[in-house]
From TrEMBL:
Taxonomic placement: Bacteria, Pseudomonadati, Pseudomonadota, Alphaproteobacteria, Rhodobacterales
Enzyme Commission (EC) number: 3.1.3.5
Protein name: 5'-nucleotidase SurE
Function description: Nucleotidase that shows phosphatase activity on nucleoside 5'-monophosphates.
Annotated GO CC locations: cytoplasm
Length: 261
């Protein structure tokens, strides 16, 4: 198997090393793992692409490239430049430092990389490691992802239905904030919503008197509704959420039919 890996934490991020090990196990002795990742951190850029400016691509080493752009840029750079001789069979994005459950999904560059792969017709999985008091001080906070990642992806690939017309499926996988031995299992889960909490801003003055705003994340230990992603993660489960790049609210069409003329 030929696998492309990317992320949004940057090419030197420890989670990318974890992902490379997962991809190597999946690719097998006759496979290939290619890395095309951002030259610097791109957290929170979502599915952003560098549409109005060029991006510099550097061949760091064999099958390893850094891109001055977003994760979605990296996927396009890989498919249309770095890997022109043969497209990958699978794209993996992550392993993100921190969860991409609930509303985090909408901001995530990790998800954006997987979404771009799906739009380009390649099977894709985004992987993120939830952080919390039970794993953040471990020697390897990514050990749940490292231990269970390859198995989860194999299960996803084996269960994925044939692609028909329309937007291709991609997957959002979140590993719980626990040690690998304490993982309770794998659960298919819808995207949840953390209630009464949102991203916000904190103002700060520089020494020169200029005013800046820092983005402040929400409390990540707040569970979502029972059976949804973050709630299951906080209960120790790996969650798998199938997604498509279709933002249509299909469930509202009957209620809104009076709009039609």
């Amino acid at each position: 198997m030929r696998i492309l890996i990317t992320n949004d934490d940057g090419i030197h991020a420890p989670g990318l090393k974890t992902l490379h090990a997962i991809a190597t196990a999946l690719a097998g002795p006759d496979g290939e793992v290619w890395t095309v990742a951002p030259a610097y951190e791109q957290s929170g850029v979502g599915h952003c692409i560098s549409y109005t400016k060029p991006m510099m691509v550097e061949n760091v080493s064999d099958r390893r490239f850094s891109v001055e752009g977003s994760p979605a840029d990296c996927v396009m750079a890989a498919l249309h430049d770095c890997m022109l001789d043969a497209r990958p069979d699978l794209v993996l994005s992550g392993v993100n430092r921190g969860n991409n459950a609930a509303e985090n999904t909408l901001y995530s560059g990790t998800i954006g990389g997987a979404m771009e792969a799906a739009l380009q017709g390649i099977p894709a999985v985004a992987l993120s490691q939830y952080y919390g008091p039970e794993n953040r001080d471990l020697d390897d906070p990514f050990e749940a992802a490292a231990s269970h990642g390859a198995d989860v992806i194999r299960r996803i690939l084996d269960a994925t239905p044939p692609h028909g017309s329309g937007y291709r499926l991609f997957y959002n996988v979140n590993f719980p904030p626990v040690a690998a031995a304490d993982v309770q299992g794998i659960r298919l889960a819808p995207q949840g919503m953390r209630r009464d909490t949102t991203f916000s801003t904190i103002p700060q003055l520089s020494p020169s008197g200029r005013r800046f705003l820092w983005i402040k994340g929400a409390d990540q230990q707040i569970p979502t509704d029972a059976g949804t992603d973050a709630a299951l993660n906080l209960d120790g489960y790996i969650t798998v959420t199938p997604m498509r790049a279709d933002l249509t609210a299909h469930d509202t069409f009957d209620a809104l039919k009076a709009i039609n003329t």
